[in-house]
Specification:
370 residues, 10 helices, 65% helix
Length: 370
Amino acid sequence: MDIKLKNKREKEEVQFNKVYRKLLLQVLSVVIIYTALGVAAYLLTTNLLRHFSGQNELLSQITEWIELHRGIGALVYIIIGYGAILLYYWNKPFQYLHEVLSATENIFQHKNDLVELSAPLKDAEAYLNQLKVSVQSNEHMVKEAEQRKSDFIAYLAHDLKTPLTSVIGYLSLLDEAPDMPMEQKSKYVHIALDKAQRLEKLINEFFEITRYNLQQITLEKENIDLYYMLVQMTDEFYPVLSAHENTIKLIANEDLTIYGDSIKLARVFNNILKNAITYSDLGTEIIISAKAIDTTVQITFCNRGKTIPASKLDSIFDKFFRLDETCPTNTGGAGLGLAIAKEIVSLHGGSITAESKNEVISFSVVLPIS
């Protein structure tokens, strides 16, 4: 953020320096033209008067008076002319400032009208219009995220009732029929447990939303054995992989290391792998590869599954965005996993991208080695 702010300030400084130089050049140009016109007018007038002064005594007296008082005349000419020029261009910056302030107000108004400034401020005009488009785009994204959040919470609130009703129902049956056959009792207990676990998952998603809204991510960096972290992660996901009939192939050198927050980066990789398993075809292989590229390390997660449309791929890292929005509580979580992953990677000075074509989905994380 500091680098972006610094670049923004430098850009603004360059733009205003351009305006200042243009204004200064205009002042110098007007002063030179005004002086040249004054000298030319004086020379032309005196030459004409000298030419005709021999024929008219009055013209001769006027010529003598002009020659006698030319210093005072020049001084008056300079004071009046230069004073007017100075006053005019002294007010120019305040006019420009007023235009910029008015344009700044326009940026935050919900209008489609673009900013229009004077000719010397065209660079600033382009910058402010770009800022206006960016602000409107961000507002639109925030509204969409809030709408997704509201819709998702509404779905969750509705879906909480279903497993809770089932748990209460089956437990009531067990309570009312103590002599129930063991086989039937075991069946009801299993269903009640399954519904209770479903209820727990939904409640955890509520907490996930709350944590995301309240948390401020801070990093505690250290040297990380990347290869060991990826191996450990694949071991931890073995039960989920087995249930989905997936396997993992890890392609990485054992000496790969990075400098970062191990807990936060583990969360990034877990979120991506969880997403890969959720949306992969049954019985397919998920490939995790890691390699050093110059001063960075690229970690790629690749799985086979339904191709993600380009329109959805652009929004896949947005908060509360989920691929299966028609029934948002069947698979995956609250739609925060990839948004959190992107935020953590950005804080590490890295980048995360997604590609999907020919039923192959890949996520690439690029992190600096040090």
